[in-house]
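Lab meeting prep.
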Amino acid sequence: MDQFFDTFLNWQYIWEVFPDLLKTGLLNTLILSVAAAIIGTLLGMVLAVMGLSTKRWLRWPARVYTDIFRGLPAILTILVIGQGVGLLARDLVGNNPYPLGIAALSLIAAAYIGEIFRAGIQSVDKGQLEASRALGMSYSKAMLLVVIPQGVRRVLPALVNQFIALVKDSTLVYFLGFLTSQRELFRIGQDLAANTGNLSPLVAAGVVYLVITVPLTHLVNYIDKRLQTGRKVTAESNEMLAGGAAI
């Protein structure tokens, strides 16, 4: 038991690594995750709209993209983008792997977020689109102002879950060889663990990850509960209106 605590809960190493985890690791993890989430959300919405198009030349590229980036292991995508595409984009990014790490995470996130958006948009009753068109809206305007906002609202919990997954996937970018100032949480914990032969720094990094992900998990549950309450109230209101009309 003493050996277990000394290997995983050595407070000397935990306190030693915490300043770097909070000052450097947490900042870089959030930059990687938030930047990739924003770019991935924008690309995902484009993919969702393309995937719902009646035109094959729009629908098929979105389908192929989604199948490829959801089918490949995340680490393989990161290595291909970071080391393969990095050679082609060297004039643009130089030897800095940071933008390539964000790009790889963004492309992975876009595939999943696109499917989330597509499912949300398809869940909206077709009558919403038909009613909007009857009021004189164009198809694109009806989708943009009526259908898509409702679809996005329905998939908010899934989007937050995807961001949690993105935070955890950010650990994989360390394969690209970031500079000391660019290291994220996992890399900082791993470096000190390798230098000391003790796993306590990785445990400390895990605690910081939990500080990020656990509140987000509870946020997902809160949003989902609010949405279910809203749907219940709406359904009851519709029943009351139907009953009033019958009278």
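Slide two material, second protein:
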Amino acid sequence: MAAPVTTIGARLRGALPVERWEATGFPGRWVGGTAMVLGPLLMLTGALLRARFHFFYPDQLAAYERHPTLMATAYGLFAAGSLLLWPAVAVLAARIGVRSAGWGLWGGVLVMLGLFARTFHAGVDHLAFQLVRSQGVGPATEAVSAGYGAFHVFATLNLAILAGWIVLALGAWRTRVLGPARAAALGLTAALPLGVLKGTTPLSLVALAGLCAALVPLGLTLLCAAPRPSRAAVLRWMPLILVTLGLMVLLGQAG
């Protein structure tokens, strides 16, 4: 009897295995667990780096003029951590939704909309910092002041930024995905200041510490749970991921 022909797709699945989604839903426990660990920690690191400067935008722009590398790093880490929260929230909402579809749906949707709004704010922050570089802190501050509070579509999502974490935390508590203490810690994320060029306040650090306390242990639990990938699979995946990230950076810089 002739041996069955092995397709290219089957060979790729064997070399680069991907775990099924049944337990956690999209994007799976490896992406979601990694995001739960890295996202909150990156945001907290970024907030700590800019903590010594007053939180309102004139002081943030002045701080960028004096310490451009430090402020760019702080805002970049915070934005990267916020971006990484979407897979973390997707997996958490899916786990909640297994036991209560309504809490999982609305908690996940509201938080995700809030994360889109924060990404928009990060883009405005970047543009404002470039104005400091090209025109100086005075004209940049005047430009931000002239447009501060102007209507934009993402302003309608400000309530989602605040309410989403509370709904998600209540859902996690009611479904016992998180215990009472960690669910309360997750709800503290609603206290994180929102808007353009917002620096760090004591309340920011409390909110981000709560986010870390809620998500980092859950992420580690997901990553440590069986089954685990073989060492060979990890060694094949890591270079591919690193090369892909490198290409994304280069292509992004190319415009």
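Talking points for slide two:
The chain has one domain: 24-223.
Residues 24-223 form one domain.
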